[in-house]
Inverse folding.
């Protein structure tokens, strides 16, 4: 069989296989667009080259400013996964609507054995929420006492945000304290709105990835100006057992 006979024959086989398998995948044509930024949770600096994927195979990479954009997505509930070498992968479920949808990510750098990290993010309003951690010996780590991750208390405020959105991050390089516990809370420091509208989320990580996520309690009748300006989120013991608290109150945990 000559070349002129073989090539048309191969072409027919290819056409048959494409038809049998449904043809090449169609480009995304849904009405939803997903966009946002990816930053480092310990510095708030943009993360370039992070892979952002929506279930179904729609993926893109973040640019030099940490920005990403995915177009032609279907409406409805989707799972988003963001990953880059050197960081712990982050997944999030959200419901996409027609038009633009925004999802920003603060990726936690990989932690050494025994390390923990707490990342606070929120909306543009209020301007300032403060993350606070109390160690078993009573040391308070926050914007006026940033702690130390290289020596006691083995906990430090990596980044403080005072103009909305976060991240505001505290890292623990080791746990110690015997029978004592670490307590973590968020204080409404400055800005208008309510906890319900703040969009505040606290994500907790250990060396293996995210272990817990907390959203600010919804209480639309509880504005920031009221007495309940403290969101007591959780306790953590020296063995790594996390106890959710997740309540609003008028006073600090300690």
């Amino acid at each position: 069989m000559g070349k002129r006979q073989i090539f048309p024959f191969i072409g027919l086989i290819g056409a048959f296989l494409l038809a049998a398998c449904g043809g090449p995948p169609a480009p995304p044509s849904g009405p939803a667009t997903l966009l946002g930024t990816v930053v480092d949770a310990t510095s708030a600096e943009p993360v370039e080259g992070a892979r952002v994927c929506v279930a179904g195979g729609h993926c893109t990479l973040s640019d030099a400013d940490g920005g990403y954009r995915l177009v032609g997505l279907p409406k409805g509930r989707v799972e988003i996964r963001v990953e880059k070498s050197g960081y712990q992968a982050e997944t999030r479920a959200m419901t996409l609507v027609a038009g633009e949808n925004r999802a920003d990510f603060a990726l936690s750098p990989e932690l050494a054995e025994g390390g923990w990290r707490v990342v606070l993010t929120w909306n543009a309003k209020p301007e300032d929420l403060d993350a606070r951690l109390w160690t078993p010996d009573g040391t308070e780590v926050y914007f006026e006492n940033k702690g130390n991750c290289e020596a006691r208390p083995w906990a430090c405020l990596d980044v403080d945000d005072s103009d909305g959105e976060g991240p505001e991050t505290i890292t623990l390089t080791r746990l110690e304290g015997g029978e004592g516990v670490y307590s973590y809370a968020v204080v409404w420091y400055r800005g208008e709105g309510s906890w319900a509208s703040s969009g505040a989320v606290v994500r907790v990580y250990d060396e293996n990835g995210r272990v817990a996520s907390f959203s600010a309690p919804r209480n639309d009748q509880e504005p920031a100006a009221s007495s309940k300006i403290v969101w007591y989120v959780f306790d953590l013991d020296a063995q790594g057992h996390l106890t959710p608290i997740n309540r609003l109150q008028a006073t600090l945990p300690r």
About this structure: Residues 1-26 have pLDDT under 50 and may be disordered. The longest helix spans residues 3-20. The domain at 32-107 is CATH 2.60.40.1120 (Immunoglobulin-like).
